[in-house]
Amino acid sequence: MALRFFNTLSRSVQEFVPLEGDAKRAGLYCCGPTVHDFAHIGNFRTFVFADLVRRWLEFKGYSVRHVMNITDVEDKIIHRVAQTNGSLRDYTSKYEAAFFEDFQALGCLRPHETPRATDCIAEIISLIGKLIERGTAYRAADGSVYFSIEKYQARGLRYGQLLKLNFEEMRPGQRVSSDEYAKEAVADFALWKARVPADGGVFWPSPWGEGRPGWHIECSAMSMKLLGPSFDLHMGGEDLIFPHHEDEIAQSEGAGLQAPGRPFVKYWLHGAHLLVEGKKMSKSLGNYFTVRDLLAQGFTGREIRYLLLTAHYRESFNFTLDGLRAARTALGRLDECLGKLREAAAGATAPPDGNMLQQLTDSLDDDFNVSAAWGAIFEWVRNINRLAASGKLLPGQAAAGLAAWQKIVLAMGLETGETAGAPQELLAVLEQRNAARKAKEFKRADVLRDQLKSAGWAIEDTPKGARLKRL
Ligand code: AMP
Ligand code: ZN
Q1: Residue 124 C-alpha from the chain's centroid
Q2: Closest residue (by CA) to atom 19 of ligand 1?
Q3: How far apart are CA 1 and CA 405, in angstroms?
Q4: Helical H runs in 170-290?
Q5: Which of 321, 406, 317, 315 is nearest to 360 (CA)?
Q6: What ligand has the least distance to the C-alpha of 103?
Q7: Residue 131 in contact with residue 148, Cβ under 8 Å?
Q8: Do 171 and 155 contact (CB within 8 A), yes or no?
Q9: How much of the chain exceeds pLDDT 90, in percent?
């Protein structure tokens, strides 16, 4: 079966056929974090989902070019910088670094490109210039440049591709300069914001005077710079559908850089929001969690990731600490089962269990149905446990299970931190060493430890059991 998922642009579940057809290449852009503060776990629901999409495309043989921007200039950031004595970069670099630490703790693969908006000012200015040339953007009296929805539509282009807009309520001539204006507003939006005293030192020269870019234009410029004027897949949380993504389409298609008949983006994929303890996250409600808060409470990035990946991306998901404890138990069952497989395989090798992989493929190809995928995985765990309990788990069968798991774990991004990347045969040696210690055969355990050491891996004994760590 081919991969199918819900395309916000067509409002239907569609088969994924990349623009390059048979080439098996896919360009993926996901709107990245605004580095004004530590990202919260709601933000990470979106990023973990984008990571799953990338991993799944790679599992299916696509060569993916994954781009995620860093929004390091917008209203909130400028407001915060104004309260410090430092520069914009002084302020944002701390949160940018923290973001990537958390991102990595959650097992997300580093995107191939992570452009910062402030490093792409030239491309942003050039794109605004093209919109002005085409008569779709205009300079207002204060030196700011706005996108004209009326002029865009007058060129026969469509505003309102991602959602139906009520143009009756549209008030032409109205404009908004805030990056965070009310969603209902269908108004001209700022592409370039003229410098005002509150901006402090945050401004750049441009043909329209000193100022800074609006938030929406940043993503149009960065995505097209790195993926070309037409690319396959654009992601983000559902709150970005309007106005951010609608405006991205308008700016990108308004500049007319696409080949005839080609869209800016073929598939738009949006993830639903995360609620915490049933409510929208807010600092005053005390239900606001960052990844680092949860790590400080003793949870692991792998447990958080697993929990985030138990819910379908189109359903809002209620995150609870109880849910996180249940995630720990589920992963414990999984890891215990893998331990049994390694023990039973005793170093044997076999091709991956095709049935297991097929079930995973059927589930994830079906609009990223993670519930069905986990259902199949835990059914498999139950079977293995039954076989192991009755002494019927054969080495070849165990090895086939392990080989399948190695592929699954890569697709889901659930490698165990320290053990991540350790070859299967060394994990088997680790199991043998654990068994030797249990049986009080300490000499043999030491020999096996040395064997691992000479292969470049150290054993680390933790309260949760022994792990391998690269030397
Ligand atoms: P921001 O840093 O605010 O620009 O947001 C980064 C990403 O997180 C965007 O794709 C948002 O749509 C997404 N996002 C924000 N809040 C949530 C939430 N509660 N649940 C899921 N995604 C969210
Ligand atoms: Zn964006």
Answers
A1: 24
A2: 42
A3: 21
A4: 215-227, 246-254
A5: 406
A6: 1
A7: no
A8: no
A9: 77
440's torsion region: left (phi>0), alpha (psi -120 to 50) or beta?
left
The ligand 1 atom nearest the CA atom of 36: 2
- Gap between the Cα atoms of 49 and 162, Å rounded: 20
Q: Is the CB of 92 under 6 A from ligand 1?
A: no
Q: Quick one: CA dihedral 182, 183, 188, 190, positive or negative? A: positive
Helices and strands (DSSP H and E) totals, the chain? 15, 15
Mutate to test the pocket of ligand 1, among 43, 47, 273 (most ligand atoms within 8 A of CB): 43
Q: Does the pLDDT value for residue 172 go beyond 60? A: no
Which stretch of 177-191, 253-267, 434-448 has the lowest confidence by average pLDDT? Answer: 177-191
Mean pLDDT for all residues in the chain: 92
Around ion ligand 2, which residues have CB less than 5 A away?
31, 219
Q: Strand, helix or coil at 319?
A: strand
Alpha helix segments (H runs only) across 272-423: 291-296, 301-308, 321-345, 354-365, 370-389, 395-412
How sure is the predictor about 427, in pLDDT bands with cuts at 50, 70 and 90?
confident
Residue located nearest, by CA, to atom 17 of ligand 1: 42
| Predicted pLDDT at 163 | 87
pTM of the model: 0.89
Nearest in space to 145 (alpha carbons), one of 134, 136, 154, 156 = 136
pLDDT digits (tens, 9 = 90+) for 432-451: 888 888 889 999 899 999 98
Q: Counting atoms of ligand 1 from 1, which one is nearest the CA of 239?
A: 12
CA of 59 to the centre of ligand 1 (A): 26
Ligand 1 pocket residue status of 240, Cβ below 6 Å:
yes
* Most confident stretch, 71-85, 285-299, 358-372, 402-416: 358-372
**Residue 465: what are its φ and ψ, rounded to 5°?**
120, 175
Our mutation pick for probing the ligand 1 site, out of 48, 215, 239, counting the most ligand atoms within 8 A of Cβ, is 239
pLDDT tens by residue, 121-157: 999 999 999 999 999 999 999 899 999 999 999 999 9
Ligand nearest to the CA of 270: 1
Atom 23 of ligand 1: nearest residue by CA position? 43
Q: Which residue's structure tokens are 């329209």?
A: 208
Q: Residue 372: pLDDT above 60?
A: yes
